[in-house]
Amino acid sequence: MMEIVENVYVVKPHNPTEPGCCVYIVDTKSKDGLVLIDVGLYIEPIQVIEKEGFNLKDIKHCLITHGHIDHFGACHELKKYNADIKFYAHEQDADKIEQKRPNQSLNPFFANYEYEPIKLARKFKADNEILKIGQLEFKCLHIPGHTSGSVAYLLETGNKRLLFAGDLPGIAINISDGNLDDYLKSMQKLTAIEIDILCEGHEDIIKPAEKVNKFIKGYMKFNENLNHIVLENPYHTKILLDLALISYELEFFETALDFCNYLLELDPDNSSGSQLLKKIKEHDPPKFEFVKRLIKENFSKEK
Ligand SMILES: [Zn+2]
Predict the structure, then answer these.
(1) Which residues pair with residue 88 across a beta bridge?
(2) Can you give the pTM of this predicted structure?
(3) 146: CA distance to ligand 1 center in Å?
């Protein structure tokens, strides 16, 4: 657990080998207690707050960024500590959170996960709705693209503008609930806001504002290229190299490794790919085969 600005903490930092998203907590210093942003898949990582002098029963609000289970799976566990906890999400992702779901995830991490549905206290409908908790105001920005009901929560506190953005860098592919055009529009909207600190779902904290903007623009390019690879031409080595490079620059090393390995499988003599692979390996990222699986599951289907 680490303080980001006064009264705002990252509870569960990014760990590529562990399922579940990054989790953040805001102490309202009022009778409204603690606000959690996303909860992840399991309650155990959240329990660290008790070592820091906080109480799990004081978590009175949980803001869900979107309807992917790695962000809200453990909601029902929170209810064991506080039966009156209030959950919030966008109405377009509400069904995924409020219904007992069939096993629908692409990710084998979650294959056998048992989910108990919860009820949302409020479902956001419009863009820029304000959620007032204690003295704090969370502005709920609707940022469809990764899912149709993705939300980012903007909070101004301690002279800083923080954005809790869930899977802002997550994939936005024109399959299932994703939509690239929506994603690009949503990201364009975010680049128009000066965000001092980006608290995001799988890569921790990005700051200052200049770096946040670069990060968002990098992921716009990433997702444009990814759509091309997954849906149009999985053998386009130039784009694969670009994807590996963008991921490397964004310090998303496990993804960079994945693209680079796939590139070198298609084109073992690709010297730029070989050089990049050496640089990626210095960071010792875990190995996934996510890209190949994504292509296998979607390329022929879309044709
Ligand atoms: Zn997601």
Answers:
(1) 63, 122
(2) 0.92
(3) 7
